[in-house]
Specification:
- This protein has 312 residues and is an alpha/beta fold.
- It has two domains: 114 residues, Rossmann fold; 178 residues, 3-Layer(aba) Sandwich (Rossmann fold).
- It contains 13 helices and twelve strands.
- The strands form two sheets. It has a seven-stranded parallel β-sheet, sandwiched between helices. A five-stranded parallel β-sheet has the order 2-1-3-4-5, covered by helices on one side.
- The longest helix is centred in the C-terminal third of the chain and has 19 residues.
Length: 312
Amino acid sequence: MTTILYLGAEAGAEAAAEVIGDKARLLTVPATPDAVAAAIGTCDAILDASMKVRLTDEMLATATRLKIISCATTGSDHIARRELGRRDIPVRTLREDRELLLNLTPAAELSWALVLACARRLPAAVAHVKAGGWTRELFPGMMLNGRRMGIVGCGRIGTWVSRYALAFGMKVAGYDPHLKALPAGIEPLSLPELVAASDVISVHVPLTPETTRLISARLLDAVTPGAILINTSRGAVVDEAALLQALESSRLGAAGLDVLADEPDVEKSALLDYARRHDNLIITPHCGGFSPDAVRVVCRRAAEKIMERLEP
């Protein structure tokens, strides 16, 4: 029987099963390298809503029945391409589904949550109270009203973040060389201009050769002293060594990250080590897009693409 390997949350599996019905078997395994390696040889398709497992060329070479990988995510940089290209196996992602994505806001909402958490030092303040303290002077906050938000990448998520910033009374600047005109309310600036002029910088670009370490050491050296950096796109978009140096030197006031370059293998991350010892770096586990409501929508669409490929 046709088998579809599913990686991700239970809510997504339920939505995918509704699409697949009795036309195929949905095989759900833990999103770990060992579990995927053990199951991949029996599958005709992979529906990846997790991104936790790096699908290497060696692993994919054992998937002799594989005909398609459909990601319930916009990113797919965790999937090797050599073996897939050799066998003409497509990798489909949600970047093809702009209309569907337009009103999916969890990633933008988490980005804004990180802005607020960094601006008001929320994790440290909460920990202080839990430890028995009640000294507000230890936690001065940045008033966002009147400050400038700089958005790197003004597509769907960047546009939502700009709306939140405008609602908070912020000025908004943006950089996106792929757009002829930026969305309403966003002042176009070059990337160096944006970095130098912004009190909060939020990054929303896909990981490509062009964007790898786009937020470079040179740019981080030029940020407004005390600025906040938010990255919910991909870890490698930021030069992590330079980011660490900017935090250690207090050039950056704080950073909020939902992504790390080596995720999910983050235990050796210097940024994670720093975050364990300092309260001006907040790291979340790439959960920006994870909301059961949204997961159901995107997994349904990813399953539809698989069935279009597999059905005669």
